[in-house]
Amino acid sequence: MSKAAAANEYHSKDFEWEELKLEVETHPSLSYHLSPFQPSLSPSSQHPQAWSHFHSRHSTGKFFKERRYLLKEFPELLSCEDYSKVLEVGCGNGSTILPILRVKERTSVYACDCSVEALERAKQNLECSGIIHVMERFHPFCCDFSTTPFPNWLACDSCRNKQLEKLVHCDSEVNDNDRTLTDLPSVQNSRCCLGGVDFVTLIFTLSAIPPERMATAIMECFSVLKPGGLLFFRDYGLYDMTMLRFEPDKRVGFRHYMRSDGTLSYFFDLDGARNLFVGVGFNELELEYCCVKSVNRQKGKSMRRVWVHGKFQKPL
């Protein structure tokens, strides 16, 4: 099968989510996923360390595949203007960054992760990618956006708090030559921020933080977007195969689980995702379940995967 055909299959609607919902909610052996839950431990403090260990174990960079399909899911990344700025939140080993930088030669990507190990893997993967001038357009930085504000060189406090006129004025102070600036300390010393970003990608990242921090984390994304900017969201959906495989002792909250390595996974429904993003000020453009049948040919098993696809805009 060609890569293009595989991508098309990956995005197809192979089954109806409502049918899966009915099957799960009437299956006695799966009832523990739906029962009320009183947490007996707080997973919050384990988050950054667990992900650092995760990326250390998967140091070869082969654990994730390059996510070329995202350019079809979010075509605005392909049609954006030259010198657009993308903030990839939770970049991992660079699987989302690579296809953007490969196709858009004049786009810069600012990539953060809570794990220094992940940022090192991303840097190594990009250096080996063969993409022309890729390291001049890739700007990594360490940040746990669920607990720490994004740095002021990305969008200064006045830009975050004032009207569009002030934000445009601040952005205009960064001249055309500065738009391809690769030395982040010089940006910090220029007394002017980047003026915000045009796009934020939040791909399988929000589910990895505790639910009580999600609204704050999304607000951080909102604050560094330019007015009219877009946030692209893709994450685990309710009743995904991965959720149904968790044993009862792995539950740490309602629809919230901890893997054996200490990393967290939350499973979203559409209403929950909508409330989070609209609640901080975003306008909803797209929000739906992506339901895909994946076949494990070695074991001859068909697996039903569910993801939530969302596209949100910061009002002008």
Automatic annotation (TrEMBL):
GO terms for biological process: methylation. Keywords: Methyltransferase, Transferase. CDD domains: AdoMet_MTases. Its EC number is 2.1.1.-. GO terms for molecular function: RNA methyltransferase activity; S-adenosylmethionine-dependent methyltransferase activity. The keyword Methyltransferase applies. It holds the Pfam family Methyltransf_23. S-adenosyl-L-methionine-dependent methyltransferase. Belongs to the methyltransferase superfamily. METL family. This is tRNA N(3)-methylcytidine methyltransferase. The lineage of its organism: Eukaryota, Viridiplantae, Streptophyta, Embryophyta, Tracheophyta.
